[in-house]
Amino acid sequence: MRNWIAGVMLSFSAAVGAQALPIPDALEVQALVARQDVAALQAYFSRYQHQYEADPATERPLIQLYWALMRETDSALAAIYDQWVSALPDSYEARMARAMYRWGQADLIAYPVAYEGVNADRAWQDYRSLMQQAREDVEASLQLTKRPLVSYRVLIALCDAMRDGPCVEQAFREGVAQAPHSLALRRGYIAAIAGDDTLHARVVADARAQGMASEHVKVLEAEKHLTDNRKIMRADGGTEVAIYESIARTVQDPWLDERIGHMFYRRSFYPRALEFYSRALAGNPNLDVALYWRARTYFAMGDMLAGRADMMRAALMGNPQANRHLIDQHVQGSNGAVRDEVAMARWCGIAARRGQAYGAFCLGDVYANGYAGHARDMQKSLVWTRRAAELGMPTAQHDLGVMLLNGLMGVPQDRAAGIGWLKLSAQGGFEYAERKLRLHLSAWEYFREMTWPAYREAFQQGGLNVRLVVNLMIEMARAAFA
After folding, report:
1. Model confidence band, residue 207 (pLDDT cutoffs 50, 70, 90)
2. Please, which residues have CB within 8 angstroms of residue 196's CB and are 6 or more apart in sequence?
3. Which CA distances in Å does 100 have to 63, 83, 307, 356, 457?
4. Cβ atoms 172, 156 nearer than 8 A
């Protein structure tokens, strides 16, 4: 089996090895993964790795290839990555691809829009587990190639997300020693040390001393203005615009252009926002965030057709905001879209299979009500509602809690579990969950389960003061004598 895979990989690489490889299209990469053909995946990824090894200046296509895997988070694809690693245990590409897939799943859990900002304990446990698995794959990959550029770039970001400062420093030092001209490595490190002007200056000075291309040094210098939010926030509006305009005149880079576009969109300068989002996408067509915001810009300018085209591409690339936007469009009939249950259900299914909480909740609603020609199926509705709740969506947590409290939809009645889900929903700010808790809990139980934990958290965060203590005692007295 392994010899056959190696033969296919080598013949495929030889046929196209002489061609310069462009930034891969994310949708094509996702389609390749969906085919679940290990040999084709290995051959395709090896082409980009070999191109980088032959010419380190071609780092961006290689990195974008792996980045493209992060948004395809369908849980059914876990098996193909495990199969790939099992078939080729010494494959750098297999290890890194699985790491990116796992990081994508973890990132989805941590993405506020995906679950409306609720950090449920279970969701964060899943997040930490996936991040650790991704890190283990990345660390294993370091020994599998002489030029592990992507490994070091990803390791910097993973360690930063896991709050492991020493790991960030070590990954940066080792990576930049192997690839001193890598813009990606230095940018990743700058993101991790954002706010530390001294370290940032050292990174820029070292890049200049190493002979990095002047346009790349300019990008690193521009990051200083774009990451130092405190200075931007203190500046008046005109100063902020002037800073960004100055950057745009001297530096052209897709990620910088995207952020400049955000600045103009925030100020309702839609033609300028469109200019910079388009410039960003010309440099890197896989920036799904830029696609999403360009779609919003088109809508604001009245171009519904262009907006829908961008929104659909961003959603197909796995952007949770775009998926949610399309679902809501077809429910409400907004932004040029007609009210369409079939289209709504289709986008719900796409989002749900990728592990997006809003899509899972929506699909649960489709099965509960029999929308779009689907037969009513309360068991499927429960499965998807529970999945959305596990991902931290407050509305789904509320609905699941009510089901458990009352034994609805064939669910065995479980008061403790129902109260637990309602607590998570209430902590996420869902008003109806708090009302349900007040109905089902005694005054003292509500104090113990909801009021006291909130005060305890405030105390732990340094909020201990006389006023807070007095308020706590009043709440305690009310609960005790109610």
Report:
1. very high
2. none
3. 11, 15, 29, 17, 34
4. yes
Tokens 């210098």 belong to 221
State whether the Cα torsion 25-28-33-36 is positive or negative.
negative
In order, the DSSP letters of 396-409 are HHHHHHHHHHHT-T
Amino acid at 12: F
Instruction: With a cut of 70, say whether residue 72 has pLDDT above it.
Output: yes
The 10 Å Cβ neighbour count of residue 213 is 12
Look up residue 165 and give its amino acid.
G
What is the per-residue burial (b if ≥16 Cβ within 10 Å, else e) of 392-411? bbbbbbbbbbbbbbeeebeb
Q: Phi, psi (5° rounding) for residue 429?
A: 95, 10
Q: Give me the mean pLDDT over the 421-431 stretch.
A: 83
Q: Where are the alpha helices (DSSP H) in 333-377?
A: 341-353, 357-369
Nearest to 288 by CA among 329, 260, 255, 264: 255
Distance CA 170, CA 155 (A): 10
Residue that is written with structure tokens 């679940």 in the block: 36
Residue with token string 């980045």: 67
What is the model's pLDDT at position 425? 86
pTM score, two decimals? 0.83
Minimal CA–CA distance to 193: which of 221, 151, 160, 216? 160
Q: How far apart are CA 130 and CA 125, in angstroms?
A: 9
Region of 383 on the Ramachandran plot (φ > 0 left; ψ -120 to 50 alpha; else beta): alpha
Angle at 241 between CA 238 and CA 242, to 5 degrees: 85
Angstrom distance (rounded) from CA 360 to CA 352: 4
Q: How many whole angstroms separate alpha carbon 118 and alpha carbon 393?
A: 7
Q: Distance between alpha carbon 410 and the CA centroid of its chain, in Å?
A: 34
